[in-house]
Amino acid sequence: MTLLVAFVVSISGAVFVAAPPASADGLSNPSGTLTVECPGAKAFIQVDWKAGDRVTVRWRLEDTGTATAISPVLRIQAHDADHDGAPFIFPSGEPHFVLRGGNGHHEVGLKSDWNPDNIPNINHLRVQVQNGTTDQGTHCTEVREIYNWTMIGHKNAMGKRGIPYVLGGEDTPERPGLDCSGLVMASYNPIGNFPGWPVRRAVDMWNWAKDHQTPSKFYAKSVDYADLKVGDLIFYKTTDEAVGHVSFWEGDGNVLDALEPGTEVSVHPEGGLRNVRVDAFRILGVATVPTG
Q1: What is the percent of the chain where pLDDT is above 90?
Q2: Is the pTM for the entire model greater than 0.85?
Q3: What structural domains and CATH numbers belong to the chain?
Q4: Tens digits of per-residue pLDDT, 198-222?
C-alpha cells in the first residue's frame, strides 16, 4: 500500500467538469453525512458504506464567498487504519475538483460502490475543502474525516460466527466465548482509530447511545426501524430489565448475535427472538483534522 503524497498540491488554471448531478434530495438513507467548510467554500458529503471496502459517495461543493476570482477546491481520500489510502478521482481524471462560477455556484457528483485499490477496509474518508487554488493563493483549508465503524464492526462480528455463548465472554483467553454485548465490544474495539466502548453491558450500551448522539469521533445515531442498514445495533427489552440484549441487523429479517446459553454466534431470523425492540442505533464517527 502506498502512502499518499502531501494533501495540498498545485492546481492549474484549467476548468474541471463536475460529475452529472445526482438527485436534488441526495441519498435517501445514507450511512452518514459530513459538512466541511471554511470562509468561501462548503462541501456536503453523504456516504453509504456498502462493506468494509466499498462506499457510495455523493458530494456537493458550493462557493459561499463573494470573490469570483477565488475558486473552492475539493479533495476526498479513502484511508485504511494506518492512513495509507487512495484518492477519489473526479470525472476530470484529477484527484481534486475546482469549482468556478462565483458566489452561489455549486456542483454535485455521485460515485457508486467506490472500491479503491489495496484497501481491504476503508477505515475513513478524509475530505479537504480549500478556498483558492495554489495559483490563486490558498485563503483557507479545512480537513475532516468520516469513519466506517459500522460495516467494519459488522464484518468483524461475522468472523466470530460459531463461537459459543458464554455469559461475560469477550473472546479472549481470560474471558473465552461471547455474550451479546461482548460480541459488540470484540467486534468494534479492535478497529483502528476506534476509541473503544466505554461500557460493557447491553443496557449500558443503550444508555450510552441515547446520551451520545452529537457528532464526534465516536457517537450513535438513532435509526428508525424502516431505515435499518446492515450492521446497525438493535436493543431489546427482556423479561428482567429494560434492555438486556443487543443484536447486529443483518437485513432480510435476520440478525447476528450471541443469543443465549447453548447457542453460538450466528445469523438467524429476528422473529425467533423472545425479546421486544426498544431502539436501534448506527455507530458513527467524525473528526476535524488540524491543518496547521
Answers
A1: 76
A2: yes
A3: 32-147 (2.60.40.150), 150-287 (3.90.1720.10)
A4: 999 999 999 999 999 999 999 999 9
238 pLDDT tier (thresholds 50, 70, 90): confident
Check pLDDT > 70 for residue 141.
Answer: yes
The rounded distance, in Å, linking the Cα atoms of 66 and 28 is 32
Distance (Å, whole) CA 57 – CA 47: 5
Q: Which residues pair with 10 in a beta bridge?
A: none
Q: Which three cell numbers stand for residue 172?
A: 479472549
Residue type, 244: G
